[in-house]
Amino acid sequence: MIEAKIHLLQALKIKLSEHRFTHTINVAKEAGRMALTYKVNAEAAVEAALLHDYARELKEAELLNLAVQAGWPVNAVERVTPLLLHGPVGAFLAALDFNISDKGVLEAIKFHTTGCAGMDKLAKIVYLADMLEPGRKFPGVEKLRPLAYEDLDQALLKCLEHTIFYVINQGQMLHPLTVEARNELLAEKLKLGRG
User: Fold this and answer.
1) Cβ contacts of residue 155 below 8 Å, gap of 6+?
2) Is the Cβ–Cβ distance between 16 and 8 less than 8 Å?
3) Residues 6+ apart with CB under 8 A from 56
4) Residue 164, CB-side half-sphere exposure with 13 Å CA sphere
5) Which runs of consecutive H residues, i.e. helices, occur in the chain?
6) Sequence-separated (6 or more) residues with CB below 8 Å from residue 142
């Protein structure tokens, strides 16, 4: 077990830039803390967090080719912005390169950038840890960090909305999975009368 983690860290150190490696370690620490808060398997959370950006520094053409190999149905948004494919491609490579077979870990890696409807707690934690780790600096992040430890769904909803506003302000295309994730959480919130 320890040898596997050491092997994983060594591979990440070689594959990722120093900046990305530091971010990855921060995400793993944050995911581990959130997993303990929400009584999720912390080892799975740390593993998914360590691998969430495994494909992040691949070239766009490589991401597109690997997504096709993985059987991922590349959509119009991903064709315009192939970087969004680093989640699904990262999950594909994590299974190949590290023999990861835990479906929850692979789903958390796959959807850490876009989110999706039906995310489990592990996927929500990795999404939030990626967005809120201490190295992230954006307006409002200070309010979102404590919320992530108080209400997982509310924090995720706020983070998805932040991402949607950011993407719109940049004049970019919204990923349909992000919209679906936001709508599902909002519907649940309204149903519960929490709005």
Assistant:
1) 128, 132, 144, 147, 148
2) no
3) 16, 20, 83, 86, 90
4) 15
5) 2-15, 18-37, 42-51, 60-70, 76-80, 86-98, 103-110, 121-132, 141-147, 152-169, 176-191
6) none
CA distance 32 to 55: 21
> Would you state the structure tokens that stand for residue 66, as one six-digit string?
């690997």
Write down the pLDDT at residue 1. 67
Q: What pLDDT is attached to residue 186?
A: 96
> Residue 190 is which amino acid?
L
- Confirm if 94 and 185 have CB atoms less than 8 A apart: no
Q: In which band, very low, low, confident or very high, does the pLDDT at 195 lie, cut at 50, 70 and 90?
A: low
Cα dihedral angle (72, 78, 80, 86), rounded to 10 degrees?
-100
Verdict on whether the full-model pTM lies above 0.90: yes
Stretch 98-119: mean pLDDT: 98
What distances in angstroms separate CA 9 from CA 45, 59, 83, 105, 146, one per listed residue? 15, 22, 23, 16, 28
Q: Report pLDDT for 30.
A: 98
